[in-house]
Each structure stands twice: as structure tokens, then as C-alpha cells.
Amino acid sequence: MILDQLQGRLDALQRDGLRRARRTLESPCGPAAQVDGARLLSFCSNDYLGLANEPALIDAACAGARAWGVGSGASHLVSGHLGPHAALEQRLAEFTGFARALLFSTGYMANLGIVPALVGRGDAVFADRLNHASLIDAVQLSRADSQRYPHADLAALERLLAASRANRKLILTDAVFSMDGDLAPLPGLLELAERFDAWLVVDDAHGFGVLGAQGRGSLAHFEMPAASRVVYMGTLGKAAGAAGAFVAGDRTVIEWLQQHARTYIFTTAGSPAIACALSASLELIANSDCRRNRLRQLAAQLRDGLAGSRWQLLPSPTAIQPVIIGDNHAALRVAAALYERGLWVPAIRPPTVPRGTARLRVSLTAAHQPQDLARLVDALRDLE
Questions:
Q1: Catalytic: which of 206, 218, 221, 288?
Q2: Catalytic residue selected from 42, 238, 288, 368
Q3: Which of 111, 118, 154, 212 could cross-link 134 (Cys pair, CB 3.0–4.6 Å)?
Q4: What CA–CA distance (Å, rounded) separates 312 from 302?
Q5: Identical fold at 21-49+289-382 and 55-286?
Q6: Has residue 1 got a pLDDT over 90?
Q7: How many other C-beta atoms are found inside a 10 Å radius of the C-beta of residue 292?
């Protein structure tokens, strides 16, 4: 029976410690979470600046809904591109320093749209081995030749590029790697892209709003120009506190994506109310140095607090602080023990991370307080 086959595969996931469980929150996004009647301190969220429940964004969303409604009613290219969408795209272009920006419903959909629009059969994509699943899927959809280089290894990438005879070349990378928290060597990647006449597509889902001057992202962190061969993707459901994504780049590139990115063309445009909230969010991001400073202070507190313990932290300069456990079942046991102490820290296992590197993924937000980190450190030390 077909269903029996599926059940057997689900049982195998359970046996291997790989089956995921979903919890339903009974409270808004924030460090204080209520789940199944229990009050928890959450270290799960990508709401890095603590804007998901920010009153200014709520007010902007409510005002936007009253003025524009809650739905767009159609795709952007039919009749769903409303005034708030146009205003937000203009602000995003100015904020990132690129000529144009294009809104997408999610970061996943943005990545699935970008890569197949730029390359196809006979072309080659050079992708970091630790890229996000959406980037991996985007390469498969493009039907271009896929060549993966060891994580952040510029020398290996250079050899692959030099040996390639592809018609078009595209370098594809996360800017901040979502499970390790480290940064891609973006200046070196751009130099290689220029030398080998390749596109450089950068997924800055976890850097936008957090890194760089005024939170303008990972390119700004490295003080890199908005080069014409760079295609920059940022998500709006993490540090920006709402939902959606955008792609920014040269005017010609964005026009091409508008004409050829299937995940842009064939989907209903996002809510105009959310676009209004995001315009307010950009103003807050630009003026949130205090929030970004708090993130750095909290990360330092966690690292100092666990120094000398058995808990191995990866060298992450970002809000993502992974604690390597190794075994899947061991990671689940530690996460469960923390949960019993009122601390919600997710256990991340393959295929999200490589086999044998299961971990706790501690996500910090500017809404956390020093006493929250002290509580987490104490609990982890108790579990040594």
C-alpha cells in the first residue's frame, strides 16, 4: 500500500532522530512565548531586531489596511501592484544602494526566481556547499551545470571557474550562513566574479537589517559597492519583522527578472498592508544601532558564559550562535532538557546541517535581555 510506504519512511525518520515536530504558539512573536499553556523563553526566532511585534509596524499595517485593504487581488503584472508596493520597492533600492528593487512573496520564491532567470542549460552555477535549501533547489530548477565548492574556499572556487567553459557563469552564496552564523568572503567572491565575467547572486536573508552601516546588509558590512554584476536578495520576515523578500540590482537585471522570474510573474502580490508596515520598518532599521549593539553584546555574553565548558560554539559574529552537539538523538535530548527548564532552543539536524553536526541553534534578538542569556548559560552549564 502506498500509505504503508509513507508510514514506514516516517517511522524511519523517527528512529533516526530526524522527524520534525511543530508547536503552536499562543502568544505573539517575542522572547516570551506561550506554548501548550507553558511559558517559555524562546531562542528560536529570526526576528533579530525585535520588530515583529513593534507598535510602529502594527500601526502602519493597520493604517495600510484601512487605506488599501488587506489583499492585492492579482499578480504584480496584472493589477496587484499597488501604491505601497511601488513605494516600498523604491525605498529598498535607495536603502541598499541599487538602481531598482523587486518584491517577492518569500525569500524562497525570490531565489527560485532569480537563478533560472539568469542561467540555464549550457551555463554553470558555482555554489557554496553550505548554501540554503532554496539556493540548492534554484540551481536544480535552472538546469545549469551545478558545481559546489568547499565552504568559503576562494581558491577552490577559482580553480572551478578557470576550468569552466560554460556560456554563462553564476556564483551563488548565502551572505550569512543560516546554520553556522559565519559570513561569506564577499569581497573575494566579487573579485572572482569580475575576473571570470560571472554573476554574483547573494542571499542576505540573515544579514539584511543586522549588518553594515544602518543595517544595510552584508555588502555594506564589507563596504562593497552596488556592482552591476551583483544580484542582491534580502528577506523581510526576519530582521525587518514582517514578511516577504526583495531582489535589488542593476536596472536592466531587475527588468529582466520582472519579465522572466516565474515566481514573480505567476503569484499574487503580497498584502499592501504589509508593504506599509515594511516601509515603516526600514525607517526603524536605519535608526536601530542600539538594537544591533545589543545583539553584539548578547552574543559576547553567551560566548563568555560558555567559555571553558563542554559546549562547542562555532565562530559566529552574528545573531546566530550554533552549539555543536553531533549526534541527532543527543541534540534532541539537550533541547528537551532545556525545554523542561522553560528554555526553547531548537535542535537542528540533517538534512538541514551535514551528517554528524546536529546542533542547538541559538537565535538572539534585540528583544532579549542580559538576564535571559544568563538563564540560558546557567542551564547549559547545569547540563554539562
A1: 206
A2: 238
A3: 111
A4: 12
A5: no
A6: no
A7: 21
The residues that bridge with 268 in the sheet, in sequence order, are 75
- How far is residue 117's CA from residue 216's CA, in Å, rounded to a whole number? 25
- 21: pLDDT confidence band, cut at 50, 70 and 90? confident
CATH class of the domain whose range is 55-286: alpha beta
Cβ proximity of 325 and 334 under 8 Å? yes
CA dist., res. 363 & res. 239, Å (int): 12
The C-alpha cell 541553534 sits at: 361
Residues facing 172 on adjacent strands: 127, 201
pLDDT by residue (tens digit) across 224-236? 999 999 999 999 9
Provide the mean pLDDT of the chain: 96
pTM (2 d.p.): 0.95
Length of the chain: 384
Per-residue pLDDT of 63-74, as tens digits, reads: 999 999 999 999
238 a catalytic residue: yes
Which superfamily is assigned to 21-49+289-382 in CATH? Aspartate Aminotransferase, domain 1 (3.90.1150.10)
Say which amino acid occupies 259. Answer: Q
Kindly tell me if the per-residue pLDDT of 36 is higher than 90: no
Contacts of 336 (CB under 8 A, 6+ apart): none
Among 134, 178, 218, 316, which one carries the catalytic annotation?
178
- Domain residue ranges of the chain, discontinuous segments joined by +: 21-49+289-382, 55-286
CA within 13 Å, CB half, 318: 30
**Is 45 a known active-site residue?**
no
Instruction: Please confirm, yes or no, whether 260 is among the known catalytic residues.
Output: no
Find out whether 157 and 192 touch, Cβ atoms under 8 Å.
Answer: yes
Report phi then psi at 209, rounded to 5.
90, -20
Between CA 311 and CA 321, with CA 316 as vertex, the angle to 5 degrees is 50
User: 231 with 223: CB under 8 angstroms?
Assistant: no
